[in-house]
Design a protein that fits this description.
- The chain is of the alpha+beta class.
- It is built from 13 helices and nine strands.
- Helices cover 52% and strands 10% of the residues.
Length: 363
């Protein structure tokens, strides 16, 4: 059960556009949405356009693009992705409602009667769960006592249970109803080049992770990655992209360099796994000790780590992440589709993978 109101992602302290988080609870009503054409696309289409002159000397759109760097691409991707996510939620709600209405009618029940009957057994909030929720969210509850806010917490947790029950029921009904979703997702197109990767190059699913070796949330997601690899095997390829949060994680950049120095020797993933297993030991001496323990050529590794030759490459990874709205770690993309929420649990990532596999099977 999700018991917290706020999910925290560590911010990458770079000069990127501000981010915002919206918490949406599903309802029976389905809303519409629209989005204006992105300013980024308009600027990119006409770089020679003159936007100002000074004593007859022009300032062009191209100059603005150069000044803004990846910010326009980031804004464009975010706007398109937010629009898609709104449309997807609306579509999921419409499909679910229609499935439930059809099943209710087949049983001679109203929609409300059917929902109540099917979810009643799934809804039970205990006093202990309410107390746990209160403790975990006390700072956000503005000094209200447990007794004052218990009815609201109970309603919130019951609604969350009801929502899960309805989603489960809708999935069961959809399995027998030949539901085909045709709404095209928004995809990031990455230049992964020779970024560290494991899994077949022709795998059906490519998972790109922007990550930080010192980030505790990335450490938590590390175990999820292992489970995904075990369950999806050759259907999954994992690509690691560097996104060290240098302002809050003092060892992250050097750890990123170390991983690429190990990559030179074909040992990236061994050092990757060891660093995430021992996140509390990432000083330069620790990194060199790990390389020695793994049997790497220590002279070559040490010289590489001291040279700083991968700093530019790490920055390029971070800039590409910026362009696709990455502002914290881990940031996960499935075949270019962003999975919001950072270190989300296994079943969330698996749902994105399964949806993508169904799209591929459909052709």
């Amino acid at each position: 059960m999700m018991k917290t109101l706020v999910a925290i992602m560590r911010p990458r302290l770079r000069p990127t556009a501000p981010a915002c988080v919206a918490f949406l609870l599903c309802a029976w009503t389905v809303g519409g949405c629209s989005s204006a054409d992105s300013a980024g696309g308009a600027l990119e289409s006409d770089g020679k356009k003159i936007v100002a002159t000074i004593s007859g000397e022009p300032i062009t759109m191209a100059e603005l693009q150069e000044q803004l760097g990846s910010r326009l691409a980031e804004l464009d991707f975010q706007q398109r992705n937010e629009r898609y996510e709104l449309m997807e939620r609306a579509l999921d709600g419409a499909v679910r409602r229609r499935l439930l209405e059809a099943e209710a009618a087949s049983r001679g029940l109203s929609l409300q009667e059917f929902v109540a009957a099917e979810t009643a057994a799934e809804i039970e909030v205990t006093d202990e769960e309410i107390e746990d929720f209160y403790r975990e969210n006390a700072a956000a509850l503005e000094g209200q006592t447990l007794e004052q806010i218990t009815p609201r917490i109970r309603d919130y947790l019951e609604n969350a249970q009801r929502e899960r029950a309805l989603r489960k029921l809708a999935r069961e009904l959809a399995a027998n109803a030949e539901v085909v979703l045709l709404l095209d997702p928004v995809r990031a197109v990455f230049d992964n080049g020779d970024s560290p990767a494991r899994g077949p190059s022709r795998a059906a699913i490519t998972l790109v992770e922007f990550s930080d070796f010192e980030c505790p949330f990335c450490g938590r997601f590390f175990t999820t990655l292992k489970e995904l690899e075990e369950n999806y095997g050759d259907r999954l390829r994992i690509v690691y992209r560097q996104f060290p949060l240098d302002n809050i994680h003092p060892h992250a950049v050097k750890a990123a360099e170390a991983s690429l120095c190990a990559h030179e020797q074909g040992r990236f993933w061994e050092l990757h796994d060891l660093m995430f297993t021992e996140q509390d030991r990432l000083t330069i001496l620790d990194l060199k000790e790990k390389a020695g323990r793994l049997g790497l050529d220590r002279a070559a590794f040490d010289a590489c780590l001291e040279s700083g030759r991968y700093l530019e490459r790490i920055e390029r990874d971070a800039e590409e992440g910026d362009a696709y709205g990455v502002s914290g770690t881990p940031a996960i993309f499935i075949n270019g589709i962003h999975v919001p929420g950072g270190a989300v649990p296994y079943d969330v990532v698996a749902e994105y993978i399964e949806k993508e596999l169904r799209r591929i099977e459909r052709g």
